[in-house]
Amino acid sequence: MSEDKKDLGDKAEDAFDSAKEKAKDLGEKADEKFEDAKEATKDFAEDAKEKASDFAEDAKEIAKEFTESAKEAFSGAGGDNKKLIAGILGIVLGSLGVHKFILGYTKEGIIMLAVTLVLGFFTCGIGASLMGLLGLVEGILYLTKSDEEFYNTYQVGQKPWF
Fold it and tell me: What average pLDDT score do residues 96-117 get?
């Protein structure tokens, strides 16, 4: 019986050694897979950084183009362009004085905006309605004047009201 126990002990020891070998092999394979995953993650991060950088450059380029287009549209592009923009904004957003800001009348634009917000609040919208009516009238006046007359009156002559 002692021999059976010895055989059984040897078998257990062999099984244990075999299990240790397999665990070691599996551990090495896991380390390899982990390193592969780590490398793949680094590659992915580098690709993501590169794509984000490309996206940022494209966004900057588009923003620059938009800025140039906006400057061209709103700065000295001529009387006709400001006439059309000021007239439409006077009709649509007249109560806020946006059309005054477009023409360079900052003080008058602030007055219209303040009357709309402050006086409009205290008079339950009557002040805002009056400024809206004033903006509507000015917008229509801007659009009905000839280009030359508009340019001479509002851009050269700097007539702030009507």
Answer: 88
pLDDT at 74: 56
Confidence of residue 77 (pLDDT cuts 50, 70, 90): very low
The predicted model gives 45-71 an average pLDDT of 83
Q: Both 29 and 95 in a single domain?
A: no
Last residue of a domain, one of 75, 110, 129: 75
Q: In this predicted structure, what is the pLDDT of residue 162?
A: 64
Within its chain, how far is the Cα of 140 from the centroid?
A: 34
What percent of the chain is predicted at pLDDT more than 90?
10
* CA separation for the pair 146, 148 (Å, rounded): 5
Name the residue range of residue 152's domain. 77-156
What is the spatial distance between Cα 51 and Cα 44, in angstroms, rounded to a whole number? 10
**Which of 101-130 are b and which e, b meaning 16 or more Cβ less than 10 Å from the residue's Cβ?**
bbbebeebbebbbebbeeebeeeeeebbeb
- Measured CA to CA in angstroms, residue 140 lies from 14, 15, 16 at distances of 101, 98, 96
Give the span between the Cα atoms of 128 and 125, in whole angstroms.
Answer: 5
